């Protein structure tokens, strides 16, 4: 399958759709990634925090050594964890990610989240195993960004970018950087279209990537996946939120949240184009110049999600879809006690 590409402000090209891997656990991921590569996904999105880089590295390495893929065919994205949000943390965690992924460069390295957790010597970091952890109240984006630039100049990453930053935080980086961020990865779906941020990024030549493009189905009542369960014993308040972000083990269902794919308007447009609801919302992203990163462990749904380049939403569809934007944010991290008092908490309003 020929997947269209976009060009980053570094001149590098990136596929117009990615394969997301947050909350896909190791056992499942090995098979799932194999399916994803067979289905045609070449942009693979992970993070140190997801704790699945080693499995991804193993599968990618097998494909490369068997001659089924070349490294340059892939676009590998990983992210600096929140406990790496200090200048020395950048090279420390980037090098660990490269080792896990069995590559000598990544295509894009992102700062995962604008606020920080204090780093400790313990491996794995307690944030990944149930705490205790301490907030870092002194996260300094500019000194972290300088290190990100250094790593790009040294070739360990081809492009650099941000994730979960708000407009003011991005502006601050833009005002002081030598190398502009290439991408911004944020929660974005039919109920949270992020128009202001998308327009701002367009003006600044930053490409937006959408996580949870199907509306966080693994968190909401729309979830159909086995293995994720409601937990009656959440971990301490601080960790709950990070678990919600990435770790299926402790994932908390939010049955109170709306399911994007059951929306009657989306269902109507899907019927009109003989496509699925998922294909409609992913195509909507593509037509806005946004790169969706859907997650699935199911081969059929993976194929479905990438099969969105043979039709076009018309003006009427776009007008209808725009009406669905009501600002519903599924991942605001607010469950974590004290988080809204952090100077770098991004979703204050
Ligand atoms: P599955 O892995 O069984 O396909 P999000 O990233 O928004 O949280 O979405 C991920 C969730 O959406 C997963 O639970 C995944 O389940 C489900 N999903 C992925 N693709 C589709 C699709 N095309 N239709 C319905 N659900 C999907």
Automatic annotation (TrEMBL):
Binding site for substrate: 125
Domain spans labelled NADP-dependent oxidoreductase: 17-322
GO molecular function, one term: oxidoreductase activity
Positions bearing the site annotation: Lowers pKa of active site Tyr: 79
Active-site residues, as the UniProt record annotates them: 50 (proton donor)
Residue ranges crossing the lipid bilayer per the database entry: none
Pfam families reported for this sequence: Aldo_ket_red
Name recorded for this polypeptide: NADP-dependent oxidoreductase domain-containing protein
Lineage start: Eukaryota, Metazoa, Ecdysozoa, Arthropoda, Hexapoda
């Amino acid at each position: 399958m020929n997947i269209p590409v976009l060009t980053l402000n570094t001149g590098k090209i990136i596929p117009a759709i990615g394969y997301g891997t947050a909350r896909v656990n190791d056992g499942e991921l090995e098979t799932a990634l194999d399916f994803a590569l067979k289905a045609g996904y070449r942009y693979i999105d992970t993070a140190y925090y997801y704790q699945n880089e080693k499995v991804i590295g193993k599968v990618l390495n097998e494909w490369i050594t068997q001659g089924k893929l070349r490294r340059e065919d892939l676009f590998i994205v990983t992210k600096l964890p929140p406990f790496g949000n200090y200048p020395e943390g950048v090279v420390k965690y980037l090098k660990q990610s490269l080792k896990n992924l069995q590559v000598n460069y990544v295509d894009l390295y992102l700062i995962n989240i604008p606020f920080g957790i204090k780093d400790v010597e313990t491996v794995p970091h307690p944030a990944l195993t149930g705490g205790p952890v301490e907030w870092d109240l002194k996260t300094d984006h500019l000194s972290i960004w300088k290190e990100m630039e250094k790593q790009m100049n040294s070739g360990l990453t081809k492009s650099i970018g941000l994730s979960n930053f708000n407009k003011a935080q991005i502006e601050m980086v833009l005002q002081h950087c030598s190398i502009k961020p290439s991408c911004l990865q944020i929660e974005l779906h039919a109920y949270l279209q992020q128009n202001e941020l998308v327009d701002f990024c367009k003006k600044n030549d930053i490409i937006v990537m959408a996580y949870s493009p199907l509306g966080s189905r693994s968190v909401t009542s729309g979830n159909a996946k086995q293995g994720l369960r409601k937990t009656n014993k959440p971990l301490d308040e601080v960790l709950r939120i990070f678990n919600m972000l990435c770790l299926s083990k402790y994932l908390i269902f939010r049955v109170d949240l709306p399911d994007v794919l059951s929306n009657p308007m989306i269902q109507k447009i899907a019927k009109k184009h003989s496509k699925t609801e998922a294909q409609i919302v992913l195509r909507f992203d593509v037509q806005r110049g946004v790169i969706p990163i859907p997650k699935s462990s199911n081969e059929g749904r993976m194929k479905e999600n990438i099969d969105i380049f043979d039709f076009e939403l018309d003006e009427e569809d776009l007008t209808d879809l725009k009406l669905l934007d009501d600002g519903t944010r599924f991942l605001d991290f607010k469950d974590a006690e004290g988080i809204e008092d952090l100077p770098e908490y991004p979703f204050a309003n």
